Amino acid sequence: MKINEFTKFNSERISLNILKTTNVNDLFLLRSNNEIVKYVEKQKDATIKDSLLFLEKINAGIITNKWFYWGIYNNIDDKLIGTICLWQFNEAKTEAEIGFELLPTYQGKGFMSEAILPILNFAFKKLQLHKIIGFTHSKNTKSIKLLAKFGFKFDKKEGINSIYHLTNKTINTIS
Ligand SMILES: CC(C)(COP(=O)(O)OP(=O)(O)OC[C@H]1O[C@@H](n2cnc3c(N)ncnc32)[C@H](O)[C@@H]1OP(=O)(O)O)[C@@H](O)C(=O)NCCC(=O)NCCS
Q1: Which domains does the chain have, with CATH numbers?
Q2: Distance between CA 153 and CA 167 in Å, rounded?
Q3: Ligand 1 nearest atom to the CA of residue 112, by list position
Q4: Whose CA is nearest to atom 25 of ligand 1?
Q5: Distance between CA 152 and CA 170 in Å, rounded?
Q6: 3 CA distance to ligand 1 centroid (A)?
Q7: Is the CB of 46 under 6 A from ligand 1?
Q8: The 9-10 sheet, strands edge to edge
């Protein structure tokens, strides 16, 4: 992986930027939503303080190139409507896992499809990753549909989860 500064992205309806303390209430909504955590193995935030601590941890990890983590902001009102990240880098920094979540009100409208495209391009072209992993609960049909739409191929099942991958060869067809 090439060392890179955090990159912001703008598209028609959304912008991708770091998590901001001004949006911590929205972050709490995301991180305490039952529907969002349904297929994701993570502890829900109980208080806004939890979300603030998470935000600080995430932004510290960006500075040290541990992961890349973007808030997805609605261009209309600058509301934080979701997040997308590249994390779980392998030691050689050639592979990473992609993670994403959207507030339920904003699902089914193509916001994540709009967000994922610049991140895949960033991963392959700027970070020069060879492979992106999609790790998802096998019943998480929305997540699987999104991965398939962007060319991720099924690898294998691991317990209740399914593992998909996308290589930099596939990205050329969608950029
Ligand atoms: C996974 C997740 C991000 C997918 O969200 P999503 O809203 O289905 O994905 P998109 O934003 O790309 O929207 C695609 C849907 O919007 C529709 N759509 C409407 N307008 C659209 C537009 N302008 N462009 C593209 N799609 C559009 C598509 O047809 C598609 O609907 P369909 O699934 O019924 O075919 C969401 O379900 C989520 O946050 N889940 C909880 C967290 C989670 O499980 N994360 C994954 C962990 S591995």
Answers
A1: 10-171 (3.40.630.30)
A2: 9
A3: 11
A4: 110
A5: 8
A6: 31
A7: no
A8: 9-10, 14-17, 68-74, 80-87, 95-102, 131-137, 161-167, 153-158
Residue nearest to atom 20 of ligand 1 (CA): 109
C-alpha separations of 171 from 30, 44, 121, 166 in Å: 29, 33, 7, 8
Stretches where the chain sits below pLDDT 50 are 172-173, 175
User: Considering the entire predicted model, what is its pTM?
Assistant: 0.95
Residue of minimum CA distance from atom 21 in ligand 1: 110
Concatenated DSSP letters for 129-148? -SEEEEEEETT-HHHHHHHH
Q: How far apart are CA 157 and CA 6, in angstroms?
A: 33
pLDDT at 5: 74
Q: What is the pLDDT of residue 2?
A: 52
87: Cβ below 6 Å to ligand 1?
Answer: no
CA 23 / ligand 1 centre spacing (Å): 22
Residue 14 Ramachandran class (φ > 0 left, ψ -120 to 50 alpha, else beta): beta
pLDDT in tens, 10-40: 999 999 999 999 999 999 999 999 999 888 8
Q: How far does residue 64's CA lie from ligand 1's centre (Å)?
A: 31
